[in-house]
Amino acid sequence: MLALSPRLRATAAPPIPAARAWSARYRGAAGPMLDLSQAVPGYPPHPALLQRLAAAAGEREGAAYGEIEGDPALREALAAELSATYGAAIAAEDVAITAGCNLAFSLAAAVLAGTGEAVMLPVPWYFNHRMALEIAGIGAVPLPCRAADGFLPDPERAAAALDAAGGRVRALVLVTPNNPTGAVLPPDTLARFAALCRARGVWLVLDETYRDFLPAGAPHALFRNPDWRSGVVQLYSFSKSYCVPGHRVGAILAGPAFRAELRKALDTWQICAPRAAQRALAWAVPALADWRASNRAVMAGRAAAFARAVAPLPGWRVDALGAYFAYLRLPDGAPDAEAAAEILAARHGLLGLPGPFFGPGQERHLRLAFANVEEAALAEVPARLAALG
Ligand SMILES: Cc1ncc(COP(=O)(O)O)c(C=O)c1O
């Protein structure tokens, strides 16, 4: 066998297919499979967006390479939307468009840290963040989150963990609303993290993939201070908000020094983001604002329905819940999370992801992406969880 990269060989296998293999064994005893594994909106894209995508894909312009940092129309549309959402003055040149938010993370990591350096990740983490760092030879310094804190990362514990890491850490990553827990960082906690990062000379990377599912209002005030450009990087995904994960469009919001280095990685890793989708999304950002607001209400309804359905279930505890996900503690006496998730999927038709997919120390937790299915289907979740015994 010829040699393959030791880093890739050391990196975990993609976890979603492993979970899908469990559900493939389900024979339908409890009714149709409830797939609460991968976060995919259960409703279709807006029909007008599908038409725009089809039209843009048929245009010659959409088949050509585009600008490295993204089509100006989409950068402008997103900058205007960000300015309104955060009450801040965001310019089109602050925005770079990427082929999805996963790539945005890998690009950001490449800009901020090199081999042998490290990035701090709260635990539980989003597994692809961990995998991206591993592939790049960047260390992941864990910041454990506690059930007692609703799985919110704590700035004081982060300060202690930064001290203990001894100057290797170049960036701290916060995902809010969080994947996998659903926890939403309050604006004042985010401000404390920003102050901590600035004091320690560490970049703050915010993955706000699920921000459109928060109640209306600014998720935080960090962009109101123009200094954000020298210390904060925001990552965004069009996948969930616009129901177009297959079209691969995401974005990075960052200041000029970061973006000057980013251009090199963008040019090398993607040349440009998919053009047809960028053209259609430039229209959709302002035009589908109301549609997104109504989806936000749908998601809030699903969150409430899920919480109501699961609350009376003996033994189970919802340790965190928000936007898209719930993070449940397994009842005492139940098998550990991987065995429990396999039994739930293969025998009882409920596919969730076990905590250990999201980092160390998560053996007693299960992530359920309740936002994938309609409220009526959520009512079936308790019976299936209870069947675990
Ligand atoms: C926190 C987080 N970031 C990024 C992504 C990936 O988004 P994209 O489809 O834009 O690559 C996901 C998808 O589940 C996610 O949960």
State the CATH superfamily name of the largest domain. Type I PLP-dependent aspartate aminotransferase-like (Major domain)
Q: Fraction of residues in helices?
A: 40-55%
Largest sheet: 7 strands, mixed
pLDDT average, as an integer?
Answer: 95
The name of the CATH topology of the largest domain is Aspartate Aminotransferase, domain 2
> Given the C-alpha coordinates, what overall shape results?
globular
> In the CATH hierarchy, what is the class of the largest domain?
Alpha Beta
* Oligomer class: single chain
Structure overview:
The mean pLDDT is 95. Helix 4 packs parallel to helix 11 (275-287), helix 5 (101-112) packs across helix 6 (127-136) and helix 7 runs parallel beside helix 8. The protein has helices spanning 6-10, 15-23, 47-57, 72-86, 101-112, 127-136, 155-165, 187-200, 238-241, 256-269, 275-287, 289-310, 337-348, 375-378, 381-386, and strands spanning 34-35, 95-98, 118-123, 139-144, 169-175, 203-207, 232-237, 250-253, 317-322, 325-329, 350-351, 353-354, 365-368. It folds into 2 domains: 6-44 and 291-386, Aspartate Aminotransferase, domain 1 (Alpha-Beta Complex); 64-287, Aspartate Aminotransferase, domain 2. Helix content is 42%, strand content 15%. The protein contains 15 helices and 13 strands. The structure holds pyridoxal-5'-phosphate.
